[in-house]
Amino acid sequence: MKTEEEKRESKKRAQKKWKEKNKEHVKEYSKKHSHERYVNLSEEDRQKEIRKSVERAKKNPEAHRASSKRAYQKRAADPEKRAKMNAESKAYYESHREESLEYQRKYYKQGCGRNRRSARIAVAQALRKGFIVRPEKCSKCDSSEGIIESHHHNGYEPDHWLDVVWLCKKCHGRADAENRRSTEQYV
Q: pTM value?
């Protein structure tokens, strides 16, 4: 019986053999799915491609997440690509520095940032120490899929740091959207 590592090696050899046997197919596929293809598209066609990609991601979010993670790890593993990513990020920040600083000033002036971070840390510590127990199901829809997240339904003030409702990702997103809509009315 083969071990897991032997199975992986065998699979890699088979893939390599298949690629060598089907070089033309691999070349065509690479051309069809390469980044350069998107560069030459019109804006309308690019938007269509984006919509298709979003639909595929909605149909199978787990596969999309895994694919994105693999692509990121592949880029991050290569020192040249990582340096390029860092340089692009730095360049973007420098070109949008004033906007970013203005947003940070506004955000921290409201006190949201500090209280929000402290509230999240307080919940994480309470979970670790066993003062709070994360339930298996969402308190709104009884779904047990994915991670059940804590939602600070009474805000992030120090009095309410541990006053949380446990929601699935979907319900949490809806609850946050409702909170944003309700606060926008009064601003």
A: 0.43
Q: Say if residues 120 and 126 touch (Cβ distance below 8 Å).
A: no
pLDDT-derived band at 185 (thresholds 50, 70, 90) equals very low
**One-letter amino acid of 176:** D
Domain ranges of the chain: 110-186
Question: How many CB atoms within 10 Å of residue 101?
Answer: 10
**pLDDT at position 35:** 58
**CA-to-CA distance for 116 and 157, rounded, in angstroms?**
8
- Quick one: average pLDDT of 112-121? 79
Residues 82, 75 contacting (CB under 8 angstroms):
yes
First vs last C-alpha separation in the chain: 67
Q: Tell me 165's DSSP state.
A: E
HSE value, Cβ hemisphere, 13 Å, CA-based, for 135: 15
The gap from C-alpha 33 to its chain's centroid, in whole angstroms, comes to 23
